[in-house]
Amino acid sequence: MVKRTEKDKTSVQGRIPIVAILGHVDHGKTTILDYIRKTNVQSCEAGGITQKISVFTVAIDNDPSKRITFIDTPGHEAFDLMRVRGGNIADIVLLVVAANDGVKPQTVESIDIIKHSSAKPIVVINKVDLPDVDIAKVKRDIVNEGLLLEGMGGDIPVVEVSGKTGKGIPELLDLITLVAEVEGLQDRGKLPEGIVAKAFVLESVRDKTRGNISSIVLVTGNLCKGSWLGYSKDGKVIVERIKGVISEDGENICDLQCGCGGKIIGISNLIPVGSEVYILEENQPKLIEPLLKSKNIESETAITEDDIFNSIFDDQQDNKDTQLNVVIKCSSQGSLEALRHSLEKIKKDEYKVNIVSDGVGDISNKDIEMAKLSKAIVLGFDVGMDKSTEEFAKKNGVLVRTYQIIYKLLEEVEDALDMLSTPKQVEEEIGNGVIKMMFILSDGSKVLGCRVKEGILKRDCKCYVVRNDEIIGEGRIQSVRIGKEKVNEAKQGEDCGIILDTDIDCMEGDEVYCYKLSK
Ligand code: GDP
User: Fold this and answer.
1) Side by side, which strands form the sheet with 236-241?
2) Cβ-Cβ contacts under 8 Å for 476 (sequence gap 6 or more)
3) For residue 201, which phi and psi values (nearest 5 degrees)?
4) pLDDT tens-digit profile of 36-85?
5) Dihedral sign, CA of 136, 139, 141, 143?
6) Ligand 1 binding pocket includes 47 (Cβ within 6 Å)
7) 3-class SS of residue 62
8) CB-based burial of residue 198 (10 Å sphere; 0-12 exposed, 13-18 middle, 19+ buried)?
9) Would the CB of 51 count as within 6 Å of ligand 1?
10) pLDDT score, position 143
11) How far does the centroid of ligand 1 lie from the alpha carbon of residue 68, in Å?
12) Is the CB of 104 under 6 A from ligand 1?
């Protein structure tokens, strides 16, 4: 049990705790955060899935010493990547498990993330307002997955809530501040002189009027307008002056306190999600070079235009047709990363998705050109395309599909791979004959007595029975006999008896065309 000591009671809040929320889809993460935030973000989400990671800070009882920052982590498995990062950035992780549904695949996955994270877990059993829920069983199942709850052999706090009615939410918020107090959160690590703050990028979007915007959460130090922002892009360290900082609601703010989230506007590049960024007093890239290099975030940088062109040309040379080439466009850097991650995981035998180009923003003529060059299809998630681009795509025979729900997109890609991996069989005629007579054997099978006119009639091959140039039936040749002898095939000029696997209403004079299937 987490207990407040006398010292805890009197201590002022250290850093504002950063809290991430994990759990299976539909277990109520958005509803709980929504209740806490007291706004209704849930209703504007396509498909009911939170599609963007964002961050907000609340003050409990309007008490500035009791503030909590929540990272609003997306729920669908397509967002594994962000959830993992969310779990690493946070001080406290809430694991939401619906009382009526219990431990599900993403619960298990979240428990795994929690086990590998330094963040303190709190288990939140949600939907306790529903009738006939077996909370004790849910807890046992969680313990069986290796999270030792308090009162059940461990010390992980557990709280029962209803995101719908708000029951238990004040207790949850109290528990979060208590855990934060007991943990005595401090700035994470000391920063070298000249560097005033460190933050994580949770989301990067391209905005028509404000330029590139990155949602960040500050884990060390404070950020003031007019400071310098340092980050890594394509392996290069870039430092630029911060043009403005806005709150999640779009209000201009002068500074951002440690543990809080905000948005930096007017950045010259889209900074990859999950990157560490630094706030500097002066334009001194040398100061952060060692910090950024050691994190090896270069591999996470967005694909460059050169890369795209190179990959198209490489791809054309060694395309063995075992890949589905795609160009992907998303509304934000976060969803793009998640989509890329999910697409790369889809495999069907040796068939896989090959992303030839990706980007943030609406689908443009350039994307269509890319797709045409690389024989790719264009997939858009939460983006549009103007009429002229639509026409341009049609003219160039490029397939464009847009989606509002990420798993619909993934489903369709899986279907497309299924189609690709099913061998395309071609029928090749190997011979034909004419039916001279018919008779029925004692076991009831119908024998077609044929004279082979051209090529061969072969056992196990597909055949069509044709009358007056029209197919009247099709089947497979089950057996071929010449006289009494069973043979594999009968050749041109030979008389044979064949039995088909289907009963076709044949007549003397009908023709039998025999085919083999080849890839
Ligand atoms: P998420 O995918 O984990 O973010 O789940 P949502 O917050 O979108 O909730 C999924 C569904 O469960 C929605 O229909 C919610 O109205 C419902 N829900 C969430 N919390 C509760 C709760 O405490 N009680 C009940 N009865 N329903 C809830």
Assistant:
1) 236-241, 228-233, 276-280, 195-207, 211-221, 261-267, 244-246, 252-253
2) 460, 461, 462, 463, 500, 501, 502
3) -90, 125
4) 887 444 333 344 444 455 678 888 877 777 888 888 755 444 445 455 55
5) negative
6) no
7) helix
8) buried
9) no
10) 96
11) 22
12) no
**Which amino acid, residue 11?**
S
Q: Which residues, including other chains, have CB under 8 Å from residue 397's CB and lie 6 or more apart?
A: 372
Find the radius of gyration of the CA atoms of the chain: 32
Q: How far is the CA of 168 from the centre of ligand 1 (A)?
A: 15
What is the tens place of the pLDDT at every residue in 109-132?
A: 788 778 877 789 999 999 999 999
Choice from 29, 30, 31 to test ligand 1 binding pocket (greatest atom count within 8 A of CB): 31
**Residue 54: CB within 6 Å of ligand 1?**
no
The closest-lying atom of ligand 1 relative to the alpha carbon of residue 33 is 7
pLDDT in tens, 136-164: 999 999 999 999 999 999 999 999 999 99
Interval between CA 383 and ligand 1 midpoint (Å): 27
Residue 99's identity, in one-letter code, is A
Q: How confident is the model at residue 288 (pLDDT cuts 50, 70, 90)?
A: confident
